[in-house]
Amino acid sequence: MKDLIVFASKHHGNTRKLVQAIKANIESVDIVDASITQYLDLSKYDRICFASGICYGQYYPEIISFIENNSLEGHSVLLMHSAGSPKEAQCDSVKKLIELKGGNFVKVFCCKGFDTYGPFKLIGGISKNHPNNDDIAKAIAFFRE
């Protein structure tokens, strides 16, 4: 089985840390940065994971564009995100888009990520030291399930 993680990580690289840890621990995973690649032949992948930071409660536009530009027909799809204050509902609009593109949504993982965006910068940020080793271990376990 071959898996793909398509990610977008900007702010502090929180999501990138999770994705790189998964890649380092699971050999059968390919990773693609959605800020660089928007079209891809997905036919060789069984599962696809979209991983993103959260900005104003939403996945990054690069992830949305990637999903819109590619067929997910017949693919099992996982979602993963990091945020200063993570909530599973932050991926609700992406779940709907996945279904419209023919994908089969399976599950979501979210964890804290250091956030100094907007007003949080004034207070030195929130969710400092995240993702931490525990968050990373949980992300790897989530992906292995």
Task: Describe the 3D structure.
The structure is a single chain. This protein has 145 residues and is an alpha/beta fold. It contains 4 helices and 6 strands, in the order βαβββαβαβα. The protein has helices spanning 14-25, 61-69, 92-100, 133-144, and strands spanning 3-8, 29-33, 47-55, 58-59, 76-83, 104-112. Strands 1, 2, 3, 4, 5 and 6 form a 6-stranded mixed sheet that branches. Helix 1 (14-25) packs across helix 4 (133-144). The longest helix has 12 residues, at 14-25. The radius of gyration is 14 Å and the shape is globular. The two termini are 13 Å apart. The mean pLDDT is 93.
Radius of gyration: 14 Å
Question: What is the number of beta strands?
Answer: 6
Low-pLDDT parts are: none
So what's the overall shape? globular
Helix content percent band: 25-40%
| Distance separating the two termini | 13 Å
Number of helices: 4
Helices and strands, in N-to-C order? EHEEEHEHEH
Largest sheet: 6 strands, mixed
Estimated structural class:
alpha/beta
Averaged pLDDT: 93
User: What percent of residues are in strands?
Assistant: 25-35%
